[in-house]
Amino acid sequence: MNRRNLLKSLGLSIGAAVISTEALASLGDNRYSYKIPENPLYKPMAKPVTAVSIGAGNRGSVYGNFAAKFPDQLKIVGVAEPIEFRNDRHATTHDIPAENRFMTWEDVFKRPKFADAVIIATPDNMHYEPCMKALAMGYDILLEKPIAPTEKECRDILELAHKTGRIVAVCHVLRYAPYFVKMKELIAQGAIGEVISVQHFEPIEHTHMAHSYVRGNWHNSKETTPIILAKSCHDLDIIKWVINKPSKQIIAMGDLKWFRKENAPEGSTARCTDGCKVERECPYSAIKEYHDRRSRTKVLDLPADKSKHSEAIMDRLRTTNYGRCVYRMENDQPDHYITSIMFGDGVTANFSMEAFTSYHGRRTRVMGSMGDMVGDMDELEVTDFRTRKSVKFIPKAEDVEGYKNSGHGGGDWLMVRDFVQAVAQQNPSLLTSTIDESIESHIMGFMAEESRKKGKVMNIKMPKIPA
């Protein structure tokens, strides 16, 4: 097998012939880059799929920007967004007529069905009702994770999706990232023998934790969803997906240890802008994060004129939660969380979510009977116990333009691309994250949170998927 043919084979989809580490190592180079090829089930489209964006914030813009980049595949024909700045921005980007611009999701459904699909990218606690209404009206749906804040609501959506026959694609975008696609492919091919156990780690990164889960929209689990779902349902899902075994039991522990009032430094104030005496040395200073570094400012809805950004940022820090002291918020989300899972055939997995790291990017170790895998989303190293040789797989994937640090390894737009084809062909099998496939990891998340609060092992009971 010559190098050209071998490198070509590395791009094959799941189900390709087994490529042994010994065969790769014999070529004298143990690093191979690869791309995920286009799905062979794709068909030419006579016209783009049309969609209404319900929610035009960060995630709504990520999915909407696919349409701006590929107008022959997806066209955004309507938007529902109560924040005027975001509504205007989305309407301008997609040339949405005035009659298709709405302030609330309810307004969208007062009109007869006028698009093929809806993209639901509202806050977590506003997924259920628009999703149920969209299904009842015959829309296909691209649904941001988590599916819904409660297990019952998730099961309701699953049941109605089957009753109406509509497609519900859950935005478990890691399933589409070339890194995880290759991991699953190699495991399925037996590259490390039988999988015995998995260790998976999500380092949130300390300022990201402060941004999203202390100051941000997800700071209070009662108003949104528990952090195991809001942040880490991606991780529970990807563990389950690559192992490809049913989950049986789960146990979890975790707490909010640091971001508490009793840990506020002497001299600190309610806001970083209130003359805080320790602001310059605080690692969580909102002024340093948003104003000085210009980091994560998309949530601040800054004006198009960059000369006005400095003034606008300081105004937001004086008036919104993003300027409040991290020790004085109404936050209740754990800042460290561990969970252990028993899967079918005796496979075990451990997952750790940690706020206090200087880095982000998921890390995974998979232990098998004939080899192991170690990866960090930038590369995946596979070692064969029999030959003691290793091969490194380097995924080539572009992250979404303008969102280079999404942490999703290019999965965002690859997911939208599959969704568009699935809707155009009315074939949900083009997706790997339909609600049928995604609901199990959500139930794992609900059970983990119950385990954390009750201090006991929880049995995982999956809903019966309608035929």
UniProtKB/TrEMBL annotation:
Domain Gfo/Idh/MocA-like oxidoreductase C-terminal positions: 184-458
Record flagged with keyword ATP-binding: no
Annotated Gfo/Idh/MocA-like oxidoreductase N-terminal domain residues: 53-171
Signal peptide: 1-25
Alphabetic keyword roster: Signal
Keyword Lipoprotein: no
Any single Pfam family the record assigns to this protein: GFO_IDH_MocA_C
InterPro entries: Gfo/Idh/MocA-like_OxRdtase_C, Gfo/Idh/MocA-like_OxRdtase_N, Gfo/Idh/MocA_Oxidoreductases, NAD(P)-bd_dom_sf
Protein name per its UniProtKB record: Gfo/Idh/MocA family protein
Natural source organism: Rufibacter roseus
